[in-house]
Design goal:
The protein contains 5 helices and no strands. It is mainly alpha-helical.
Length: about 140
């Protein structure tokens, strides 16, 4: 998963470079397409960078615990390690949610290119379920 996230970060940086190019500014359709890609990857890259920073801080705190002989400093570093590990787990879950959310958003378009209307489909499924229940459960008269 980390290789895939590193590749997403690379693509994000390439998009930044392309968006700063004056050639793209002249082609509005290409600019719009790149901006949509940039926007969809932005939140994922931000969370990935936060996780990398947290991991680096965690590694530093573990080095402090291993290197120091001062009991107070060691206790402080162990508390920080516990907090950073908790933040790392929470950030990892958030990142997975963002990746799943991006896949869902990417697949929300139908073959015609129109946006997927979730409300319509939920209502349709609800009424279809009611119709099926009416046919299965006999009415009392």
């Amino acid at each position: 998963m980390l290789e895939k996230l590193a590749q997403i970060e690379e693509n994000y940086e390439e998009l930044n470079n392309q968006l700063s190019s004056p050639d793209i500014m002249s082609d509005i359709s290409a600019y719009t397409k790149l901006m949509k890609q940039h926007r969809s990857l932005g939140e994922i890259v931000k969370k990935y960078r936060e996780l990398k920073k947290t991991q680096e801080e965690l590694d530093g705190a573990k080095e402090i615990v291993a290197a120091t002989e001062d009991a107070e400093m060691r206790e402080f570093a162990e508390l920080e390690i516990a907090e950073l590990e908790e933040n790392l787990k929470k950030g990892d879950e958030d990142l997975k949610f963002l990746l799943i959310d991006q896949r869902v958003l990417r697949n929300q378009r139908t073959t015609s290119g129109k946006p997927f209307n979730l409300t319509f489909h939920l209502k349709h499924n609800y009424y279809y379920s009611l119709r099926c229940l009416r046919n299965i459960i006999p009415r009392e008269t």
